[in-house]
Amino acid sequence: xxxxxxxxxxxxxxxxxxxxxxxxxxxxxxxxxxxxxxxxxxxxxxxxxxxxxxxxxxxxxxxxxxxxxxxxxxxxxxxxxxxxxxxxxxxxxxxxxxxxxxxxxxxxxxxxxxxxxxxxxxxxxxxxxxxxxxxxxxxxxxxxxxxxxxxxxxxxxxxxxxxxxxxxxxxxxxxxxxxxxxxxxxxxxxxxxxxxxxxxxxxxxxxxxxxxxxxxxxxxxxxxxxxxxxxxxxxxxxxxxxxxxxxxxxxx
Length: 252
Prior knowledge:
By secondary structure, the protein is of the alpha/beta class. The chain has one domain (35-250): TIM Barrel (Alpha-Beta Barrel), CATH 3.20.20. Helix content is 39%, strand content 15%. The chain has helices spanning 9-20, 36-45, 70-79, 91-94, 98-107, 136-139, 143-153, 164-172, 193-198, 217-225, 235-238, 242-250; strands at 51-55, 84-88, 112-115, 131-135, 156-161, 177-181, 207-211, 230-233. Strand 7, helix 10 and strand 8 (230-233) form a beta-alpha-beta unit. The termini are far apart.
């Protein structure tokens, strides 16, 4: 794993918690996934912005906490036009849980992404999902085997990068669904220009997702114009009426 002292203190705390998290399983999961790239493409073909709406009770960069039925939140997001749902399962800093993801996946017909800080193969077996987030910066040399382990279970790995070097490592590791995170994990600041700088170097056959900082339809269009195939939107949807907020971003 790529150790660094340049991460923001909140991120270092999240990683420390992830390292402490033990996962003991008898057998690896086997998942029959709903296609995340297919769902994003279908939304675009239907004239909607391809939104992955995120069920996120709280985070180190938001105020307060929203404790509501995750399945009800997800159903309202889909009713508002979400092509897929992301569920935070990290418990200590985001208030997430694997139970919440199970409930969401049973409640909606769209692909469900597990968003967490997965550092070793056993972490993959905590809960079934259609896709899992793998963060290139945190996995270092373990990225390629983690991609392979995710695919062996049926998961679609979404590999998150922030800069050109991480993108090149992700592509070399075989990633075919890549998220560019506009948030700099060294200071937690968001710059939509990050996506615009990195996206031109992504091959056309890779499904490309813009992450973080998308707070309006104008932001969404900016990312789509820069080459995004999908948009991961969390706080802007969770702050208020999730159905109306999703519709406001998803309606083209």
